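Re: weekly structure request thread

Next one in the queue (381 aa):
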Amino acid sequence: MRRILFILIALAVAAFAGWYYWEFSQRLSSAPVAALLPRETIFVAQIPDFNRARDEWQRCDIYQLYRERAVQDFLRKPLGNAPKTDAASQTLLEIEQLAPKNAFVALTSIENNNPKIVGGFRFRGSQEEAERITGKWRLMLMGQNSSLKLEKVQYQGHEIEATKTGSFSIASAYDPPWFFVATDAADLQALLDRADRRASNPDNRLDKDETYRTAISRRPSYYTAFFYLQPKTFSQRLAALRAAVGSTPAPGEGTMLEKMRCITGSMRFENGKIHDMFFLGMPKLEQNTTLTRSSLSLGTRETFLYLAMLLNLGERMDTLKQAAAFAGTKIFQAFSDSGITAADWKAAFGIELGSLANWPSSARWPSLLVTLPVTDATKAG
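Done, posted below.
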């Protein structure tokens, strides 16, 4: 009786341990990429499913057009002059074998002009199978360099393999089903801590950042590729440069880059078409004004681009004049030569700028239409 009871207890403990391990591995493998990155991450690009993205690309209209015999005949000569190598095809086959999911690369910081980069992906199969491929990539990346320094370090049950040559270093580690890589071993350790949920500061994660959360709220639920950019680091450097040369903006003013909070973009395939969406987070430039999108009625079935934005050209005419002069055009200078002032422009036109691009099947080239609402026909004329 005691033996049976002991066996039942042992089975219960084993079942609980198996369930706990499965539950933990599921949470680990399904962890969002943003939960693996520090809060101040500057840039991250992600492909949720590489093999699915490849299959959808090969079914899209652009790829089918590329495979047309006439297009192949047209490209045969220029492509024939390109150097032929099997390395790219072999690498693609190896990536397909790994079946990467949630593949990402991120720029986490720039210290002393040295960018720090981390990346990783979830792989299919065992760690040994993945190592046969990633190990070969590691050797190809470092090349035949006699100054290479290889070092293996144990960290929290993980083996970190670091390779250094001169000022360049790369560290990699497995945390099945994840494979991680970084240009700094300390950053890789922090990445492993976040993946294993033992970070000392659990709030130091990108998915806890309000700006990032606002940005991804505009992201579609299904996407093939996605990127997020936090321009704050670059705007701070720009502000420091302006201060160094004695150019101090007036209170409340600043460059467009300094006003940007985030930039995101996503791409997805749908019925053979490629759909792109971009989101720019920044303070509202025009208060108490909303987009009417009145220019949308000018579009047709052959319109492939539509843009509507609030842009007070009257208030920014001097800035645009300087930018145009720098670019070598004098379009805004012509307004001044004709006696048109910023006040005249604001009195004649509204601030909603619309733009449409059409490409009729009967036309050789597309056409572009730019619109502004007229508030005073006499002054506008």
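Residues 34-208 form one domain. The CA atoms of residues 288 and 352 lie 13 Å apart.
Next request, please.
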